[in-house]
Amino acid sequence: MAISNEKDRYLQNYQAEQQAIQLYEHLAAAESNPDLAEVYRKLVSTEQKHAKFWADKLREIGIEVPKIRPNWRTRIFGKLAARLGPAFVLPSIASLEKNAATEYAGQADAESIHMPEDEKSHARIFQLLSQTSQGLQGSDLAHFEGRHPATGGNALRAAVLGANDGLVSVFSLVMGVAGAGISSRNILITGLSGLLAGALSMALGEWLSVQSSRELYQHQLAIEEQELTETPEEEQEELTLIYQAKGIDQTAARDLAKRLISDRATALNTLAREELGIDPDELGGSPWVAAVTSFLLFAVGAFIPVFPYIFFTGLSGIIASAVCSGVGLFIIGAVITLITGKHPVMSGLRQVIFGLATAAVTFGIGRIVGVNLGG
User: Is residue 109 part of a domain?
Assistant: First the structure.
């Protein structure tokens, strides 16, 4: 039994290391910045050492080392990185790495060669790469200067949640009026009206949110520019402290801050990114792009429970709408695991259960209201 448990642990650890190797190789191949590509290759080298350790452990107990193919998550991240650039997937990978940083805790053999420390270091590296425009240590920072902070994970999260909002809200609306015994034609009209109203509301809300953020960022940048003119020494000291907080020694941090502050344009750009967390080239993005994207994502999700009523009526329409919505909910739940790192089937089923439960409640309320109003 003990050997069986050890075999499972060795296999699981070996597979995880191989997936990490393949993922980092994808990032290195897709990265146009040679300095960042070298960082990914260094991570690959570390993970290869870990994988060899677990492969040797498997051989010690007489188990043949299996050939590991990239799983679905690694393949998707690899394709997204190749097409849209590593920055698009870095926030999601950073989240996965943060969860993986504790997987070796309590494993004495892994701790003996400092695997937990290595994994925690990798998590910190991806966290910095995904959230900042800078690198990992003083000697690397100048090479990474000007890199836009990655927003891909947030964009993916927004896309998934936008479609989910549209699907769940309109599915519940459709089930509510269906429960009230309204005709299929009126259910279709109600569903399409809910789709349009919800999508427009989401678009307006997103436009206001992004536009307000842009105006706030512009105000903050103006204040920062004024402070840079009036008190450059204080701004240099703030930047020094920021770099020290990232693990750079005081002398290197001070030298780097002094070099950046010496150029006004670079100083403002750096302070905006490091102190305020603002990309001065983007300022939170275009409000119109955000509005249109939000409208379309909500509409796509909302159309799923509505379109069956174009072809079906009565009970058939209710069943078809529920089935299509269930499939849509499962897909959304599975896609969310790109961010959370959870099992796609379990996440998909959870999404289906919650969505159907919500629709069932509104159907029941609609039935009660319909009966009472109908006399």
Answer: yes
